[in-house]
Design brief:
Elements lengths: L1 H7 L10 E2 L4 E2 L20 H12 L7 H15 L24 H10 L7 H11 L6 H15 L6
Antiparallel strand pairs: 1-2
Helix pairs in contact: 2-3, 2-4, 4-5, 4-6
């Protein structure tokens, strides 16, 4: 993970859909699914939510640093969107260049979940909550949105 960040996404903190080789690097196009296998796309969009879940449930006591991992992503996304979650795009190159001008709730909801990591992101979190509540799209987006809402609301508890 650290090698990916330091070599491919030091500003954004984004992870690719798939990682290959040792030392690790983003997968080439069409490695498993499509031309975006080495980009921050539909598999990787869940990363901020998953790290936020680790942070909310376990903090930093487990020896990992989820808050430190989320900070570059959240700083970057709040900066490029002007702190407006509606500006999150549906996929990025690891350097932060959008792959499209389209939006998709699975990307948006996951970054909103990551905002629980620091009070600095409260405005993004609040406006994000307003954006995702009641938003319906498709199975994939709706599932990620529901899970992020459970996490953000505090309903999701440690097993």
């Amino acid at each position: 993970r650290i090698k990916i960040y330091s070599s491919y996404s030091p500003v954004t903190g984004l992870m690719p859909d798939f990682i290959v080789n040792d030392p690790p690097e983003p997968a080439p196009a069409n490695f498993l699914e499509d031309e975006n296998d080495g980009n921050y796309y539909y598999n990787a969009c869940r990363v901020p939510w998953r790290i936020a879940c680790d942070y909310v449930l376990y903090g930093s006591s487990n020896g990992k640093k989820p808050k430190t991992t989320l900070q570059p992503m959240e700083n970057w996304i709040t900066d490029i969107t002007g702190n407006n979650p509606a500006g999150v795009k549906a996929g990025y190159r690891l350097n932060g260049t959008p792959l499209t001008e389209d939006t998709d709730m699975c990307f948006t909801a996951s970054f909103i979940a990551g905002a629980v990591s620091d009070p600095e992101y409260q405005e993004f979190l609040d406006s994000g909550w307003d954006l995702i509540k009641g938003n319906e799209s498709n199975y994939f987006n709706d599932t990620i949105t529901m899970l992020t809402m459970l996490l953000i609301s505090g309903i999701w508890e440690s097993p």
